[in-house]
Write a structure and sequence with these properties.
The protein has 199 residues and is mainly alpha-helical. The protein folds into 2 domains: 2-66, no CATH class; 85-192, no CATH class. It has helices at residues 2-33, 40-62, 85-100, 103-109, 139-165, 168-192; strands spanning 115-118, 124-127. Helix 3 packs antiparallel against helix 5 and helix 5 packs antiparallel against helix 6 (168-192). It is elongated and about 95 Å long.
């Protein structure tokens, strides 16, 4: 009989310990997901401190205006009008032409417009290309190369426009400009540096 009572007592103690642990875990979970809310008197004290700081700051900011009267100005908000797509295209295309012409090199190095070379008799004759130099150019040489690159760009633009219109004349003009610009650029390179990169 004593053994039975002892076993019932042990089971009851174990159940009480499990209930206490469950209650403690639920209390921890409640603290994590439901943190304690501040009391109303704490909120009022916090708000009053903020209002006091704002009043002090506004008093400091308003101090210069007690001695200086703000003029009444009627300023109009500036209105900006976007440029048309054609203007943007012209600006971008002219920038491309100048950059491909080597305008940055011309500003830094400041080369002459054309050069001069001597023939076998010692007579000086004008030379458009700065011979045997890939990284050098005259101004006219750069403008000529930029014009050739611009023609090729116009050919690609026309080929893109022909995608919707499907016009044979536009396609032929685009093809002629692309092929001509490439071949003229190769001719310029052969004139500048003979046998450069060619078998």
């Amino acid at each position: 009989m004593n053994e039975i009572i002892h076993s019932f007592h042990t089971v009851f103690v174990i159940e009480e310990e499990e209930e206490e642990s469950t209650c403690w875990q639920s209390h921890i979970i409640d603290q994590q997901y439901n943190p304690p809310q501040p009391q109303p008197n704490q909120i009022c004290t916090y708000n009053s401190n903020i209002n006091k700081q704002l009043r002090e700051m506004s008093g400091i900011l308003e101090l210069p205006f007690k001695f200086y009267k703000v003029p009444s100005l009627r300023l109009k908000t500036p209105t900006f009008s976007y440029p048309s797509p054609m203007k943007v295209f012209v600006i971008v295309f002219v920038t491309y032409f100048l950059v491909s012409s080597g305008i940055i090199y011309d500003f830094i190095v400041q080369p002459p417009s054309i050069g001069y070379s001597q023939d076998e008799r010692g007579v000086q004759k004008p030379s458009v290309f700065q011979m045997y130099r890939v990284n050098g150019q005259f101004i006219i040489e750069g403008l000529s190369a930029g014009f050739i690159f611009a023609l090729g760009a116009i050919g690609f633009i026309l080929s893109d426009l022909n995608k919707d219109k499907n016009n044979n004349y536009i396609f032929i003009a685009a093809l002629v400009l692309i092929v001509a610009s490439y071949n003229i650029a190769i001719v310029f390179l052969r004139m500048k540096i003979p046998n450069y990169g060619f078998a």
